[in-house]
Amino acid sequence: MSAHKLSSRVREVPMRVIVHGLHRTGTMSTRTALHQLGLFTCYHMVNVLDKLDTDAEPWARAMEAKFAADPPCPDQKWTREDWDKLLGECQACLDVPAALFTLQLAEAYPEAKVVLLNRDPEKWYESVLGSVNLILAPPPSLLNRLRDLYLTALVPRHRQWTRLAAALRRYGMPFDHAREKDKAIAWFNDSYRRVREAIPPERRLEFSVKDGFRPLCEFLDLPVPMVRDEQTGEMVDAPFPHLNDRSSFAAHIHWLTGLRIRQANAALLTLVCKAVTAAVVGYGGYHVYVSKIRQFWTWGVWR
């Protein structure tokens, strides 16, 4: 199931927490919080983007195995060993694509606790509409299409992202987020309903980033991070992280797009330089060849 670079991975740390947190539910803030609690690494979409060369293809195949077959083929079901190859370095996971497999991961790792990362469905929809949806389904303008073709031709990592994004659109989130609001919200609600129905109450926690550290720490049997209050001097619960709001997300995507374009430009420049070098060498070789021929014929005539 996995790429060659994944085949040698094994589980290095126990899987302790499976967070059913879909995109734009506070996943980056929760990831940072789990890292503060010592749960390294917490697998997130940022990990996929960092390791597109090894992780994009396995996630795409996992989605195809789960969603494409009707009925699902038992031979394609991922085992604990399969998940270890992809998540063996992680003590926790959340965000898409991992959150699309919460129940499969909970079955593979029965010792792990499950956290449902909640958000108001209407706010979730609007947040995705102005962020993630622009990446997965950009407006079909000529400029966007030309840029995508340019990056696909010259940047291997962009080709891998295109493969993953296509699988997410077709299998993971099979609806038009911008035009099918009711369908998107129904999908969102149904994903949480299925987890609640399958995972017993003693194994799961209903959580929101607004709840702070304490309920999460109590559920995970971990100490609550404390900080000193500047006014009273007393130790109080540390504030829960607040990261990756819509403006931060947009800034990061703008930076990433710029990076991809610079990589494509560099690749194109390299190709042009190689072509020019080959042309110069070929042209010089041709002239040397012609010169030798002329010398040969001149020598033959005057002999």
From TrEMBL:
<protein>
    <recommendedName>
        <fullName>NAD dependent epimerase/dehydratase</fullName>
    </recommendedName>
</protein>
<dbReference type="Pfam" id="PF17784">
    <property type="entry name" value="Sulfotransfer_4"/>
</dbReference>
<dbReference type="InterPro" id="IPR040632">
    <property type="entry name" value="Sulfotransfer_4"/>
</dbReference>
<dbReference type="InterPro" id="IPR027417">
    <property type="entry name" value="P-loop_NTPase"/>
</dbReference>
